[in-house]
Amino acid sequence: MARVVVVGAGYAGVMAANRLAAVGRSDVDVTVVNPRPDFVERIRLHEHAAGAPRAIRPLRGLLRPDVRLRVAAADAIAERSVRLDDGGALDFDYLLYAVGSTAARGMTGSEHAWNIADLDGAESLRTRLRQLPAQAPVVIVGGGLTGIESAAEIAYRYPSLDIALVSRSVAAGLPASSRARIHAKLANAGVALHTGLRVTAIHASGVDTDGGRLPSDCTVWAGPLAVPDLALRSGLPVATDGRLRTDDALVCLHHRRIVGVGDAVAPPAHVGAHLRMSCQAALPMGAHGADTVLAMIRGQQPTSVSIGMTGQAISLGRRDGFIQAAHRDDTPAAFALSGRAAAVVKERVCRFTVTSMRFPRAYRWLPGATPSVPVPPPVAAR
Ligand SMILES: Cc1cc2nc3c(=O)[nH]c(=O)nc-3n(C[C@H](O)[C@H](O)[C@H](O)COP(=O)(O)OP(=O)(O)OC[C@H]3O[C@@H](n4cnc5c(N)ncnc54)[C@H](O)[C@@H]3O)c2cc1C
């Protein structure tokens, strides 16, 4: 019986654990380690912060019954065991590294901002928004998809607040026509756009930019993401941004018993350069990572990961949305959909993420531009 420890129970970790348990039933023993007993639907954290039903559900109800759950954080990963912050340790034959991402905190005064990238930040923002009087200024920093969704959601739930979005650009990765439509939709929703500005510091009462100060009673940080430093602290090979480096099959370089999945992992560019940090990439990475572990347990050659992206599904409050189709390499395609129909599609996408983790054997994904091929066996397994 091979002991597999999955560190992190987000989209990638839960998919990997359930697929391993479902497919490898008789020859694997799976334990998931996660700091809290809940699954956090991160893709709904902007809804959560704005006061929608909470975006958490018990992990025990999502994990297959034969998967063990250990509520703790991993402190250090050694050759065949992982040390936990509750004083315990777990020995493993294979480890799946799935610790995800959180907000990058480099900005001067970031302690004055509410972070939307993790549950604690979203909880605290939820409380803060409820305390604000009508017309209070709220500034969202960051014009990526999280900033756009957060601004629109807060405007939808709190129409009396004075909401602004500040960023150098808003929806930068989208074609000009899609960008213009999103700008118009945000303006319609009552969000004032301040584009072409660089935020230089955050204060308790405002946001400094290179174009002047914006008053704010509640600043929401929707800037870049960073990854936990667990791999770095454990002496594992990492990219410059701290993501675990793997081969084509998602096996950690030089550590053949560790497989990496999700936001916290950097596969080689020819299979992974187009995989932006997203739930869209984390789920198939989790499934492929599970297949790689099963192949190694059975003495077979794992295959290279091959994932095609499909597009961006953006919620704009509860009644509007925008879908931008993409080619498999994540470059935008011609098709876009907006309005109520797009909001419905986005909601279905969110629900599908949970369903797919419940039915991991049936889960399929679009292959990438590079086909999946067997990866040569390692020279020496550790
Ligand atoms: C507001 C918002 C909206 C988003 N919307 C979308 C969207 O529409 N579409 C999309 O594709 N993506 C979206 N994303 C991005 C998406 O949520 C992430 O890319 C996705 O969650 C990554 O999945 P993951 O499994 O790699 O990591 P996560 O979901 O972050 O899970 C990682 C898990 O590991 C745990 N962990 C961390 N450190 C340790 C440790 N030391 N020991 C044990 N466990 C640990 C964490 O607590 C967490 O449970 C959104 C993100 C945000 C914040």
From TrEMBL:
Names of required cofactors: FAD
Originating organism: Streptomyces noursei
PANTHER family: 64 KDA MITOCHONDRIAL NADH DEHYDROGENASE (EUROFUNG) (PTHR42913:SF3), APOPTOSIS-INDUCING FACTOR 1 (PTHR42913)
Family classification: Belongs to the NADH dehydrogenase family.
Recorded coiled-coil stretches: none
A Pfam match: Pyr_redox_2
Record-level Gene Ontology MF annotations: NAD(P)H dehydrogenase (quinone) activity
InterPro entries per the UniProt record, alphabetical: FAD/NAD-bd_sf, FAD/NAD-binding_dom, NADH-Q_oxidoreductase
Lineage per the UniProt record: Bacteria, Bacillati, Actinomycetota, Actinomycetes, Kitasatosporales
Protein name (Swiss-Prot/TrEMBL): Pyridine nucleotide-disulfide oxidoreductase
Segments forming domain FAD/NAD(P)-binding: 3-280
An individual GO BP term: aerobic electron transport chain
Keywords: FAD, Flavoprotein, Oxidoreductase
